[in-house]
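Justification of computing resources. Each target in the renewal requires a structure prediction run like the one illustrated here; the chain below, 394 residues long, is used simply to show the kind of job we budget for.
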Amino acid sequence: MKKSIMRKSPLVLCLLAVAATVQADDARIKQLEARVDSMQQDVRAAGQDRVRFNGFMSTGIARASNDAGYDGITETSEAQSLTLFAIQGRFDISDATNATVQLVARGQDDGRNEFETQLEWGYLTHNLDNGVRLRAGQMRLPFFMYSDALELGYAQPWARSPLVVYDQIRLSNYTGADATYSYQLGDGTMRTQVFSGHSSNDVDVAGAITRIELRNLVGGVMTWTDYTWTLRGVAARADASFDFISLNDDYEGEFYGLGLEYSEGNILLISEATRRKVQGIFADQDSAYITGGYRLGNIMPYVTAAWIETQDDSNRDGQVLESGLQQSFLNVKREDYSLGVRYDIMPGIAVKADWTHSRSFGQTDGGLDNNRDATGNVRFSHTNVYTLTLDAAF
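Resulting structure tokens:
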């Protein structure tokens, strides 16, 4: 018996050794699997850190007291054209370089209950070691204080931004490049931006779709802020062409703007003044607004006074376009007065209501797209627009 056990002991020992080896291998495999799983989690976490998404939406309803066409609003209640949804993504390519993409779906005022989705932003950003930021691609035209929040209603105090200023340039984006440098100046920060590129789009002018194009666009913006006071100036020029009433020539255009904002405690004051100059028959326009708001917790009532007027009317008096229309139809004079209130329901969601009264058109149609009849006579001497919006950012 002992001899049998001894004869079998090498086999037993071998089996025991194999079993121990298998157990050790299983333990090593489990350790490797745990390490791989940990590495995969780190990779996913790193990827998530490099990709960020946010978005915003707006909806609302508006109605006017007549069909003068203030911002396209008529006596028929309008909701779809006030509705949009946007998603924005930022993708970090490296510590110094990233890409930004923004898609916006807008409701169309064409009675077909459709939304049109467009690439609003799409650009690369690179930050140099000396503090200069470079961007290239499709970006927002930086003409106004709230240009970057032109459609982000939640970031604006108004239910409807002052049309006399924000409708001066009916193009919102350009394709090109810019460079920005920020530095300390006094108790605040000065940011200097230069930009150049090309912009074009089809816009609705007096009920007709018109192609507007800006070529050789160059400009600069200087902004100083101490986060209570903000002072901003912009100047730009471009070669402009208009597919408008058989006019296809190029005209040199210039744009200048000054903005001032004060935000401290309960008080909010905002004002902008602009000048748009275009060679040829097209009108040179001056415009300005001032808004005052007072915060009462989550509620902020506000009041706005605004004005716009063409400065070269005498150049068009008695002149006739090739189509037979009087050039004086391009003259504009108007005053807008708005009362509104903003209520922040919760962080990221706000409801706003606004009543805008527009008047003092003089001998013009007020620059309203639908304020002339078939014979060219002005239809209305004033109009009222009532707006209710819901804005969210997430």
